[in-house]
Specification:
- By secondary structure, the chain is α+β, with helices and mostly antiparallel strands.
- The chain has 2 domains: 77 residues, Alpha-Beta Complex (Outer Surface Protein A, domain 3); 82 residues, Outer Surface Protein A, domain 3 (Alpha-Beta Complex), CATH 3.90.930.
- The strands form 4 sheets. A 4-stranded antiparallel beta sheet has the order 11-12-7-13, covered by helices on one side. Strands 1-6-5 form a 3-stranded antiparallel beta sheet, covered by helices on one side.
- The longest helix is centred in the middle third of the chain and has 17 residues.
- The N and C termini lie far apart (58 Å).
Amino acid sequence: MSRIAKNPIKISKEVECSFENGIFSAKGKLGHLEINVNSNYRINIKEDEVKVIPVKEINNDPNWGTTRAIIANTISGVTLGFTKTLELNGTGYRASVSGSNLKLELGYSHDINFDIPDDVKIECPKQNLIKLTSINKEKLGAAAAKIRSFRKPEPFKGKGIKYIDEYIFRKEGKKK
């Protein structure tokens, strides 16, 4: 039995949750999100908590905990939101936002223009920092991973785009 899936999700008074026809929706101060829930589960919504309950008695279903985690992320997203910060390391590496595009100068012969997704907000407080915020954790992670894939950090000098809290394992260079 899943220990995480059995735990109820606490919700505050400012969040409105509903579950109809397999769609869970949450509305909070930051916005509104809807998720399709697997038909093997139903959601019980009480005054201050939400529980994910399997329709049939299932002992070893890994999707039970996953479903609970996705619903918890949805509720957390509409109340607090999610942020990720990327850092550019390297000579001449810059980032800037212009309209709905993120312009990246990463040492290539051309600049990279990244179209910002609708649900994600990007700002550049410094030339070497990119701050992404969103209420949808999945789209935020996908956008951050796509930006990071343009120039992953290399292990010798550490040049590239990395998450702010990421540790890059450094290798020793050639010896004479």
